[in-house]
Amino acid sequence: MDSQNKISIIKIPECFNIAITTRNNIFHSFTRHFHNSYSIGLLKSGSVLFNIDNIKTVINEGAVYLINPMSVHSMESFENSVVDYVVISIDKEMLHKIIQNENVIFKDSFIDNSFLYDKLTNVITMLVNKNVSSIEKQENIIDILNELPLCNNENKELKNINIDKSLSYIKGNYKTELELSALSEISNMSMFHFIRKFKEQTGFSPFELIVQLRIKEAQKMLAETDKISEIAQELGFFDQSHFIKYFKKHVGTTPKEYRKNYFIVQE
Asked: In the chain, fewer beta carbons within 10 Å around the N or the C end?
């Protein structure tokens, strides 16, 4: 079944540098992860069990789903249905620039609206068309954003300053081998309390976050090179087989297949 899993990623630099990811014949369960972008998804077929910020929901074919940056989520095929979906991803900083608001979030995660679904389907077709001007693409994206449940995140919780120190250190050094004792020392906590506080703030353990960051960097590197063993070594994986194992667990396909189906569209 895994061999039937198909993925394509199209980047559109002339339209706010958005990316459109299409996956067909999905049986793979995607473990807990996050994105740095705003995601607008269309479930084209099948049923999916979503877990977004520890809230579980089953959605069906024709649903629109919305995921905020850094929102911890997972998904799996529900009752072994075949799943096809497409996602528009907009970089966090880019959307903030478009809307001129750094605290904007999607208020709702799921929308059952056939009119919006059909409109998004048409917009995606237009976005990948090389014969459509950049201004028309940009206007259509902004028009879609105006129809989505965006709001100010007025209930933003204050972050733990000590955890922020270790979080910043991990983001700057995730390619190296990090020690739990050193990370907890940076946050001036015992390892016992550090793990608990870190999970509370980020939704992940330190190791889980390190793997997430490595995989996201690997996705970028695979757009430029097919040297999988070198990527594994540079990103701090024990060996190539460990890299492939974690990549497939998080992305749903092997690095080789991911690169094969990665496209960049330009005017």
From this structure: N
